[in-house]
Amino acid sequence: MEVHAQLRDPLTTLYALVFGLLALGYASSNAVELVSNRGSVPRTASWALMLAFGGLTAFGQVITTMIATTAMLRDEAQRTRSMIATTGLSPRIWFVGRVLAALSIMSTVYAAMPVGLVLGTALAGGSVAQAVLESLRAYLFITVPTMFVVTAVLAVAGALTQRVLGVLATALLLVGVWQVALALVANPSTATAGALLDPFGNAPVLAATAAWTVEQRANNQVPFTGLLLYNRLTWLGIALGAVGLLLYGATARLFAPRVEQVMVVGEQHRADTPFRDTSVLMSLRRFTAQWMQRDGGWRIVSSLAVLNALANALLRPLHIGEPTVAALMLVSEHARLFLILLATVYAGELVWRERDVRVDQLVDALPISRRDLVVGRVQGLLTGQLQIVLPVALGALLVAVLRTGSLHAPQLMAWGAWSVFVLWLPFAQLTVLSLTVHVLLDHKVAAHLLLITGWVMAVVINTRGATPWWVRFADAGPLATAAGDGVFWGILLQRGAYWSAVSAALLLLCWWRWPSGGRTSPAITSR
């Protein structure tokens, strides 16, 4: 049933098309590059394809998360979990069936990678036979084990938490572990630990071939032995262990009812705060901020963002340039993915949470103006974001001091500018953009998919450096090497003011198009 349901979903076909086109573009042109520092190594070499398929599978974490979440939380989204529990179906059979369905779908989606690579090689006039052989090796040794591990771990997280954000937090944790592993493998003294720690398989390939020459990378096959084999066995053991612990220790939670926290638009007046501002606007702002700060998913993802950004900034080598700015940019680089996902998910929650719990018509009946409803919630969302912005900013200052061994006034000036114009302001602007997309599309799945696709396209555009800054949303611009440089402040103030004005216009659009009147989208699903 689950396989048929997912195959009928057009998004499944879209997922496979995305992987196929990425692989085809990588094999046929220079428009898509999946292996950093590949140099003159052929695209279809064993070394290059192992890394390319590992990177594609890591990129596919978003799609794997969506498919696993849909499989595990479909009954919760459709309010049929309690009904299924009364049928006498074994929780273990239910869980195993849903996991096998997710794995079947993922196998179909990821199979587009070798197909796209072979087609791209044929279009480019390369060796099709070599492309078939090496893409199948990479698919079997890298993609299939990773697919099983990630799907199993995310399925366990979904079954235990019964929440989308629980699965999302687990997926981000795996991405954070992957990034830390890549940082560890770059240092010879920690390469073995990094190779075993990587759930996607890039780090063991890099560790095993660290001493290879360009000629060896171009002609030799990466052996499925040593660190690569140990890495695959380690993560397969972790996935099987997680599934075993769930099936034999926590099956009662699979059909346990979940208590929903309903997001309402008011706040009870407490007797111990008689002089507190109780206006509608302030109540909405205060409640939204407190709801976010108390939400378990927000706390988990925020903690992962802080730890991942600071750990990578401490472990990775500094880029060329002024050391303090280089350290700060490392922090923002490794926090960016988490901030984008938080902006995407929680901006959507402002629109969808009340409809998810079927209280939207009750809220529409309350005597609250649309302006207060939109402005109060956005203010609360931006206030709640300080819970992640402040720790990242303070941690970045500590990292900069530790990496440079000093603290002077120019460093503090650079840190202050970075905190406002590179960390907080783009986070707020991306949140407003995400909210606008959700409001205009009025379709939860379509909005999330459009935003995720947009972020991927933005990364590609950014790496190519072909797009002017005034069409790159929430682009804070490069930091100057000297904090006293006039261009430094001019660029940051100019771009900050420009994109803040764009965000203000988008807020007006949200106010004008805010859904009301009990209008409910047909796509309110856990996906």
Outline:
The protein is mainly alpha-helical and 527 residues long.
Counted beta strands? 0
Question: Percent of residues in helical segments?
Answer: over 70%
Helical segment count: 22
Structural class: mainly alpha
Low-confidence stretches: 259-277, 480-487, 518-527
Report the sheet with the most strands, covering strand number, pairing sense and barrel closure.
none
From N to C, what is the helix and strand string?
HHHHHHHHHHHHHHHHHHHHHH
Number of domains: 2
Spatial shape: globular
Instruction: Tell me, rounded to a whole number, the average pLDDT.
Output: 79
Q: How far apart are the termini?
A: 17 Å
Tell me what portion of residues adopts beta-strand conformation: under 5%
Cα-based radius of gyration, to the nearest Å: 24 Å
